[in-house]
Amino acid sequence: MTRRSLKLNPPYREIEYSDGKKEFWNRLTPRNQIDLSYLVDMNIGDQYVIVYEIDGKILGFMTFLDQGDHLHLDLIERNELIEESSGVGFNLMMLLEIIASIFGYSRITLSSTQENIEYYQRLGYEIIGSSFDNPEYGSLTPMEKRS
Predict the structure, then answer these.
(1) Which strand (E) or helix (H) includes residue 37?
(2) Strand 107-113 relative to strand 71-78: parallel, antiparallel, unpaired?
């Protein structure tokens, strides 16, 4: 599958190598040790890394996979070092729905941590399978949203 070109408007853009040097910390950092420099190398092929940037500060990011018939949200996090990052996750979720529509997809999938299931349900996602254990994130529940 050929990587699709994304034409994003600020504050959204694909991650760049210079972002790898910027500070970023979120609630998952202690578990997965993912920082922006790690994410730079993930933005290839069918995997996309989108950042939310204002005034040169990365307020949040999301990573997703183009599965050929739907998008799969991999990670979405806000930068807890920056107070203005509140609400960034919701904005990135709305962008993901727009990207899915542009790609011609009517479905988005994700695997939610237990503490986020209700949040995703409020956004219209439904549980589609049994929870499973993940060594980094604990119990994950598969969910999807159809448009």
Answers:
(1) helix 36-40
(2) parallel
- The two structure tokens encoding residue 114: 């237990």
Q: Is the pTM of this model over 0.90?
A: yes
Exposure string for 64-93, b = 16+ CB within 10 A, e = fewer: bebeeebbbbebbbbbeebeebeebbebbb
Which pair of tokens denotes residue 122? 């409020």
8 vs 14: CA distance, rounded Å = 8
Q: What's the pLDDT at 107?
A: 98
**What are the extents of the domains in the chain?**
12-109
Q: Which residue type sits at 19? A: D
Residue 31, pLDDT > 80, answer no
Domain boundaries 12-109, CATH class: alpha beta
As to burial, measured by CB atoms within 10 angstroms (0-12 exposed, 13-18 middle, 19+ buried), residue 4 is exposed
Residues 95-105 have pLDDT tens digits of 999 999 999 99
